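Predict the assembly for these two chains.
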Amino acid sequence: MMNEHFSENDDLLLKSYDAPVTARERELLSSLMQNDHALRQQGDQYSRIRELLLRPEPDSFGPFFAERIMQQLKQRASEIDYLIFFFFKKYQVLAIGVLVALLITNMLLTDQLTLKSLFGIDQQTTEDVFSIDLYKNLTE
Amino acid sequence: MDAAAGKGTEDTMDLNEQLNYEFGRLEPEFKAVATLRLIEGYSTEETSVMLDIPLGTVLSRLARAQQKLRMALSKKLK
């Protein structure tokens, strides 16, 4: 008899989770929950089971999804730019040094301070041009 | 022998694992109702329509399924 009574209370408790209960049932359940420690504990256990079983909502995109994606992309792009800048910056000083050394070498070799001499461009005189033409005629 | 082995396994499971294990052991008619209502979150009416069974049957099967789960997990739920 006691077990049957207990089972009825249990059923009423479970019914309250899934179906509408009448005002009388609600009142009865409320009274039982206040006075019956075991039933209250069962209620906690059912709630826990249901909580564990319920599949969580699929992840939503959330507010400002597009803005957040664009922000991430911009941040990633600026990080890449930063890396490239510092990668080449290491070689900038070296490159400038080599260029200056080449310019000075060319200038010293030609013994002239002209733009052409700096860049190692030969300055051909009229004699040079004639001598080249002469050489060509001889070889032909 | 098997029961003893099963008992040992249950003792080493955490609550979630044992819940999944016990859920898998439910009879198909209880499991179907419990899956739709408790896992997928359909209403009892929707469950009733989907399984083509009366609403009262849905509620009673749901209650039995939860009672079985609670009994099986009582130690770990305390």
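The first helix of chain B runs from residue 2 to 12. The two ends of chain B are 28 Å apart (CA to CA).
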